[in-house]
Amino acid sequence: MNALTLVQPRLRPYLHEVGYERWSRAYSEGFQYNIMMTNISECINTILLKERELPVTALAEEMRSLVQRWHYERRTEAKKCKTQLTPSTETLLSEQYQLSMRIFLWLDPDSDIMYTVLDGDKNGIVDLQARTCTHSMIAIRHSKIDVYNFCSEYYNSSTWKATYARVVYPLPHQGDWVVPNEVCDIKVLLPDI
Q1: Looking at the chain, which terminus has fewer C-beta neighbours within 10 angstroms, N or C?
Q2: CA dihedral of 87, 157, 34, 146, whole degrees rounded to 10
Q3: Which among 145, 131, 132, 130 has a CA at the least distance from the CA of 97?
Q4: What is the DSSP string of the chain?
Q5: Percent of the chain with pLDDT over 70
Q6: 171 within 8 A of 64, measured Cβ to Cβ
């Protein structure tokens, strides 16, 4: 905030007035699944705020439980999917298809894979083979090529389902753990404070 004040002094009161949660990821009250976190530990620390005070074995069990719950929820959601792509990708594809209906296309007479797309200020050349333009949907639609051939396998519902096909097992009772002797012999001391 101090760096911002040096660059633009009038910005500080405005940002303070609108509230940190409106412009800072650290104070955001919404879900952040679509935002790449800079540090996964920040994310886990936020979720396990109360659990951080537990003994390490209880904390590990809480973390395992959290991962198991997330895994189960995503697996259940993936199993419901009946489309070729994940639901969010199908929605995006449908929106792009609808947008492509309003764009003018000029076909290069010397090529059946090169197109010129006229979209106001976002004109572009589409090369379907090199996949060079965001306007590819209109060219794909015009060529009557299956649009799914242009989607990465990472967006297939089968990939999504396979990601969550495995089971996350709970930790066994601490009395049932098999701990090697060299691990048992390690002395863990409290840090000097």
Answers
A1: C
A2: -70
A3: 145
A4: -HHHHHH-TTHHHHHHHH-GGGT-GGG--S--TTS--S-HHHHHHHHTTTGGGS-HHHHHHHHHHHHHHHHHHHHHHHHH--SSB-HHHHHHHHHHHHHHTTSEEEE-TT-SSEEEEE-TT--EEEETTTT--TTHHHHHHHHT--GGGGS-GGGBHHHHHHHT-S--PPPPPGGG----HHHHT----PPP-
A5: 77
A6: yes
Burial of 117 (0-12, 13-18, 19+ CB in 10 A): buried
Model confidence pLDDT, tens digit, residues 93-124:
888 888 777 766 666 656 666 777 766 666 67
Residue 142 near residue 100, CB atoms below 8 Å: no
> What is the C-alpha separation between 124 and 118, in angstroms, rounded?
7
CA terminus-to-terminus distance, the chain:
31
| Token duo for residue 6 | 């040096």
Neighbouring residues of 47: CB distance < 8 A, sequence distance ≥ 6:
66
> pTM score > 0.85 for this model?
no
- Residue in the block written with tokens 């101090």: 2
> 136-143 vs 87-100: helix axis angle to the nearest 10?
80
Amino acid at site 66: L
Query: Which residues are bridge partners to 134 per DSSP?
Result: none
CA 82/CA 151 separation, integer angstroms: 17
